[in-house]
Amino acid sequence: MRDAAPVSTPPRVLPPNDPRQYDDLAGEWWRPDGAFAMLHWLARARAAMVPPASRPGALLVDLGCGAGLLAPHLAGKGYRHVGVDLTRSALDQAAAHGVTVVNADATAVPLVDGCADVVSAGEVLEHVPQWRRVVAEACRLLRPGGLLVLDTLNDTVLARLVAVEISERLPTVPRGIHDPRLFVDARELVAECARHGVGLRLRGIRPELPGTLSWLFRRMRGRIVGRPVGTDGSREPRIVPTRSTAVLYQGCGRRSG
């Protein structure tokens, strides 16, 4: 009697924005040509808004820190980097990159009021059912004069088209990573931050087109010749300002007091 053929387990299909996706994609965080490549580009752009620490022992709290992609871009700025995330597999990688990790929900962070010189909320607001609670926590954590930096997707038809219908068909964004019902209206975000004493200024951003097209070409060529993107000395695409906040936008502002 012949042995039965092994039964392969099909990959699980998860609802859009399901947090379990990040465990399934745990090996992608630090691959320059991986599913989270664009998060590296955004982390560099977000870190550029963070000035050097103004005092010894300054604290930066990174909400939704993932695997700590912000860490290399903060090196030398003088902050203690504390990362908050729900995904344990991501936090293990963040810790390996020098981040002090906290396994917690961004709507209920177990840190004291006014502890942070900077709070970063990058690519997290569009992934939570109650983004206003995350904003409230971010503002609570800031000391008077502290800086909030963030980036997120706007709640517009154009954002849904670009970020879901188009981008999730490209190798720069994992399929099903977004739920467009959670996208964050820019005007509402400014008003919510103001309610908590932070005057938020916004600007639209996007990946530079020539660099992104070049990256996609190198990625496809790498699949053919077996050489990952980034091993040939080429740089990653840059995130650049744009006039419109209709799709992707950055925000920064200081807490009053």
How would you describe this protein?
An 8-stranded mixed beta sheet has the order 3-2-1-4-5-8-6-7. The protein has one domain (21-254): Vaccinia Virus protein VP39 (Rossmann fold, 3-Layer(aba) Sandwich), CATH 3.40.50.150. It has 257 residues and is an alpha/beta fold. It is globular. The protein has 8 helices and 8 strands. It has helices spanning 21-24, 37-47, 71-74, 88-96, 131-141, 157-166, 186-195, 209-225, and strands spanning 59-63, 80-85, 100-103, 116-122, 142-153, 201-207, 239-242, 248-254.
Can you give keywords for this protein?
257 residues, alpha/beta, Rossmann fold, eight-stranded mixed sheet
Give the structure's gist in a few sentences.
The chain is of the alpha/beta class and 257 residues long.
Major beta sheet, strand line-up: 3-2-1-4-5-8-6-7
Overall, the morphology is globular
User: Low-confidence parts, pLDDT < 50 over ≥5 residues?
Assistant: 5-10, 224-229
Q: Mean pLDDT, nearest integer?
A: 89
**CATH superfamily annotation:** Vaccinia Virus protein VP39
End-to-end C-alpha gap: 80 Å
CATH class (first level) name: Alpha Beta
The CATH architecture assignment turns out to be: 3-Layer(aba) Sandwich
The H-and-E topology, N to C, reads as: HHEHEHEEHEHHEHEE
Please state the structural category: alpha/beta
Q: In total, how many domains does the architecture comprise? A: 1
